[in-house]
Amino acid sequence: MELELRHLRVVCAIEDAGSLTRAASALRMSQPALSAQLRRIETMLGGALFDRLHTGVVATGFGELVLARARSILPGVDGLLADTARATRRRAAPDRVRVGSVGAPLLGHLVLAVRETLPGAEVTARCRNSPVPLLDDLAAERLEAAVLGDNPGRELTCDRAVELRPLVTEPVFALLPSSHPLAAREEVGLNRLIEEDWAVPRSDGDRTREYWSAAFALTGRQPRAPYEAEGRQLVELVRSGLAVSLCQATFAEAPGTAVRPLSGNPLWYRHVLAWHREGPLAPHGDEIVRRVGEGYLSTCTASPAYARWRAHHPMSARLTD
């Protein structure tokens, strides 16, 4: 009989449990079978590892030596096994790649980039209003990649297992009813816009409302916001002439709405790509960022207000190197 890692795990389990009966239950063995195995281990090592007492077991001096060495060996072995398992998963072509996205124009470009990079994989997607649950899913390996977003001074923080790759920081624009008098202007002052009724997104942990409020405070006022809505519902409130709001610069004008830059560019939004550092997309991160960046530039041309803004600000909102 030769010493194996499982023998060291048994010895550690016995000390952790403090009795053979509890250790046998934790190891899903019978108590007689565990006692017999312990005797074989002790014979192989050449000495008693535990004193058997009526209250349980206590390590002998010889047992403490063995336990100290076992506890120094096992974490390294477990780490090696975990690392090799992850490396194997990365080398293998995945059958499915799960991606997520906040409300941003990059999800389609990310899906296409993954398909082009891993053509054999099925790509699925889920969307959330906040990046926070998506970061949790990435850290727990429930997602392989995601499109996220944040604001200057309120950047996302995440688990060390998740890589965040900023793509571009763009200005935040005003979203108006197309019939609104301000829609006739080339750009809109935030101090003028703040006089209107607003529709605002729900506060859900991504700090967008906090960021907006900080910008509003610079005007000396906070807007009246009788409507809390997101996505299509927010657009419908604006289209109906009931409210104004803010939007990403790449937002495509829906019928009945107008997208206009804010004077002085007081607000900004950062697009971020993220993936698990040990996931199947990690070796392809640079390529995926490049492909999604190219898609972003094509999206910019589809937004007339943003295309004009970029023409007047050629050094701003550039892709991150």
Model description:
The chain is α/β, with parallel strands linked by helices and 321 residues long. It has 2 domains: 5-91, Arc Repressor Mutant, subunit A (Orthogonal Bundle); 96-312, D-Maltodextrin-Binding Protein, domain 2, CATH 3.40.190. It has 11 helices and 11 strands. Strands 3, 4, 5, 6, 9, 10 and 11 form a 7-stranded mixed β-sheet that branches. A two-stranded antiparallel sheet has the order 1-2. Helix 5 (107-117) links the parallel strand 3 (96-101) and strand 4 (122-127). Helix 1 (5-17) packs across helix 4 (61-91). The chain is elongated and about 90 Å long. The relative contact order is 0.14. The model has no long low-confidence stretch (mean pLDDT 90).
Strand and helix layout:
Layout: H1 5-17, H2 20-27, H3 31-45, E1 50-53, E2 56-59, H4 61-91, E3 96-101, H5 107-117, E4 122-127, H6 131-139, E5 145-150, E6 162-177, H7 190-193, E7 197-200, H8 208-217, E8 224-228, H9 231-239, E9 245-248, E10 257-261, E11 268-276, H10 285-301, H11 304-312
Parallel strand pairs: 3-4, 3-5, 7-8
Antiparallel strand pairs: 1-2, 5-11, 6-9, 6-10, 6-11
Helix pairs in contact: 1-2, 1-4, 2-3, 5-10
Brief synopsis:
By secondary structure, this protein is of the alpha/beta class. It has 11 helices and 11 strands. Strands 3, 4, 5, 6, 9, 10 and 11 form a 7-stranded mixed sheet that branches.
Which CATH class of the largest domain? Answer: Alpha Beta
N→C terminal distance: 59 Å
Number of strands: 11
Low-confidence stretches: none
What does the overall shape look like? elongated
Major beta sheet summary: 7 strands, mixed
User: By helix and strand content, what is the structural category?
Assistant: alpha/beta
CATH topology of the largest domain: D-Maltodextrin-Binding Protein, domain 2
Give me the number of helical elements.
Answer: 11
Count of domain modules: 2
CATH architectural type of the largest domain: 3-Layer(aba) Sandwich
